[in-house]
Amino acid sequence: MTRLSTLLFGLCAGAFAAPWSQDPRPAPAEAPSAQAQAPATAEAKPAVSPRTPHALEGVYELRARMVDGKPDRQPSRGYLAITQRHLFLCLGANGPDPEKPLLRAGVRTWQPVEAFVDGVVQLGWYTDAEGRITVEKKGVAERRRIDPIAGGVRIWNDSRNWLDFERVE
Predict the structure, then answer these.
(1) CATH code for the domain of 116
(2) Which of 27, 55, 72, 85 can pair with 65 through a Cys bridge, CB separation 3.0 to 4.6 Å?
(3) Residue 36 in contact with residue 44, Cβ under 8 Å?
(4) The domain containing residue 77 runs over which residues?
């Protein structure tokens, strides 16, 4: 039995070491053609320049929450990340009942439109004052006002309720 094991091991090791089981060797590099070495002309297309990020893109931490026109004194935590195409939000605050915190999380695709941001829900949910969870329907479009402010952004719910975020990245 040991001879058979040794023989099988040797065959397997040989098969794995065989050139046909390894990645092919790279072909030798060809010398650049005369056309590739020709100087650039006015007809040549310019190299694609990197995309300039939108002013709202970044990572933010919640700094203040206004409720009914007054600063909310309850502790709240949250983060906002805005990429080229997506807006990620995660918030947590004490609710009226300490056993039922207010929570919100969501992902939206977004696009700036004048002084607003149009978003489409990809995933989202929130809890209400009673602690019930509401799942947002995928594909729902919404328009929000998001203003750049000193060191961050302000997301408006309405004229008396908003969130201030400070840029951390």
Answers:
(1) 2.40.128.280
(2) 72
(3) no
(4) 58-167
